[in-house]
Specification:
The structure holds 2 protein chains of 2 kinds. By secondary structure, chain A is an all-alpha fold. Chain A is built from 4 helices and no strands. Chain A is globular, with a radius of gyration of 12 Å. A 4-stranded antiparallel beta sheet of chain B has the order 2-3-1-4, with helices on one face. By secondary structure, chain B is of the alpha+beta class. In chain B, strand 2 and strand 3 form a beta hairpin. The C terminus of chain B is likely disordered. The longest helix of chain B has 15 residues. Chain B contains 4 helices and 4 strands; from the N terminus they run βαββαβαα. Classes of the chains: A mainly alpha, B alpha+beta. At the A-B interface, helix 2 and helix 4 of A face strand 2, strand 3, strand 4, helix 3 and helix 4 of B.
């Protein structure tokens, strides 16, 4: 993932309205290997989509599609 | 006025041995009593991202339905009391039933950028694939 380089919000680019909590593949890109949500300043996501994304990630965590805390493999 | 809902059910595959289908059918019935069932998506058995009640596997099903908001507490209560349900989630669908299917997302997004494509390809296997991208 390109961190540090500020980009346009990916969801805005694709004109995404909702982010599905079941679409684990997409969500995976917005969390660290530890499972923490990557801040907006790193991913370039706009405020609105970050909020939608956050909700999706938290839902995905609740139904065990994504970890709350993942073991970092060294 | 009925609202659009989506329910995720994780059935304990060990407790509900062989009767996972039965459990799902039971909840289809329950939803039918309280509203109208639109669609059921069976994802099947899947590894949980973390243990729930010492289980590492669970059977996922997604129910899309319409119901009166008052009926949700009934469904919620039924899920809560059911021991064969490891975890459940009931949400309102904000813009009607246009929630994308997981597979559709994968194909859409795979070509979007290289980093994503690599991850998407290997993602099916397990949690430990994500490390590559970091």
């Amino acid at each position: 993932m390109n961190r540090g380089r500020v980009k346009v919000c990916r969801f805005c680019e694709d004109k995404v309205v909702t982010i599905d909590y079941k679409s684990e593949r997409i969500l995976r890109r917005f969390v660290t290997e530890r499972g923490k949500i990557i801040p907006r300043r790193m991913t370039g996501t706009c405020a609105r989509h970050q909020r939608v994304l956050m909700r999706a990630i938290k839902r995905a965590r609740h139904i065990a599609l994504m970890p709350y805390v993942a073991d970092a493999v060294k | 006025m009925p609202k659009d809902y989506e329910m995720t059910l994780i059935v304990d595959t060990q407790l509900a041995e062989g009767s996972v289908d039965e459990t799902v059918t039971r909840y289809e019935g329950l939803i039918g009593e309280h509203g109208t069932l639109v669609n059921v998506d069976r994802l099947g058995s899947r590894k949980l991202a973390y243990d729930i009640r010492k289980r590492q596997q669970g059977d996922y099903s997604f129910f899309q339905f319409q119901a009166e908001p008052a009926a949700i507490s009934e469904i919620d209560r039924a899920c809560h009391l059911d021991e064969t349900i490891l975890r459940y989630l009931i949400i309102t669908v904000p813009h009607g039933f246009e929630v994308k299917q997981p597979d559709a997302d994968a194909t859409d997004e795979a070509g979007a950028d290289e980093a994503g494509a690599v991850e998407a390809d290997s993602d099916d296997t397990d949690d430990d694939t994500e490390e590559d991208s970091e």
